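Q: Protein A?
A:
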Amino acid sequence: MKRFIIEREIPGIGASSAAELCGAAATSNEALDKLPNVQWQHSYVAANKTFCVYLAEDEAAIKKHAELSGFPANIITEASIIIDPTTANK
């Protein structure tokens, strides 16, 4: 599967309560239950956006998740390479 970064513009998301974020995660999980070819790894929550890391076969699967969950997928970017501090030691 390919790794995708999904930028979602959600005004005020950074001010969400733990209960609201729990509900959002549950909504996403319900959509994922219908999409066996999509896996949510994690998300970063900022003031007015989330940056979500997903594994999927293709961009169409990411768009289908957005449709089923009701969350926008404003920018979808395939991330083909991962680097981290240990990359410098190779």
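Q: Protein B?
A:
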Amino acid sequence: MFLVEARRIIIVIFGALLNAVSLNFFLIEANVYASGFTGAAQLMASVFQDFLGIGISTGILLFILNIPVAILGWYKVGKGFTVYSVISVVFATIFLEVLPVISFSDDIILNAVFGGLIGGAGVGLTLKIGASTGGMDIVAMVLSRMKDRPIGTYFLTLNSVIILMAGVLYEPENALYTLLTLYVTTRVIDALHTRHEKLTAMIITHKAVELQHEIHKTMLRGITILPARGAYTNSDQNMLYLVITRYELYDLERIINEVDPKAFTNVIQTTNVFGLFRKD
């Protein structure tokens, strides 16, 4: 258990380092912006410096923006998920302060692409081990626990504001390059983990009751259990059918591997859900 938790913390810290490298080495000098709270902090730092003459770093602003969100996550999501998010934000802030702000290239397209690629890798790796980078991830988790809401709308709204402000306050091209960065980031996250907010898991197993019990200990999710028969073995089994958020995928994989490593699981994208999504 200790080694598992230590591995998660190391990956969270490494993801924070990648996010800091993305910003300090590629995006900040090019005035191209990341997504979510990171991009918001980056844009605020640019506005304070260029228009108000106040030098506040992106790392400090990122930390400040995440304080109320972390408090919300602590009470509404859970201590474990929030602690990993706080670790990610704290180390991202440290790395942003320690690493110099430089530019490897004067080509803004290269900065946009590689900044998005490295930043997406940091987020994707963090999500893959069941943690988050804070910010909108915690907001999305809170909303998914409270009610089935279109979480993607909130991401889209915040990113749209960042893109619009980049185009208005600086050059219109900056908005287009920011769009390129967001696209690359999304594609990398999708390759490493998944960008889909909701996923449907279909688990074929001989240990349906045990799996149901362990899943309900960790997640507030309804489960439908259906009879199933293996065509090759002709053996009676059960299929557990449930919808989860992308933040719960790591925990679901862990539970399946612990309870029934031989279970067959198919995870697919879920576009929308009608009716009761969570278990009351």
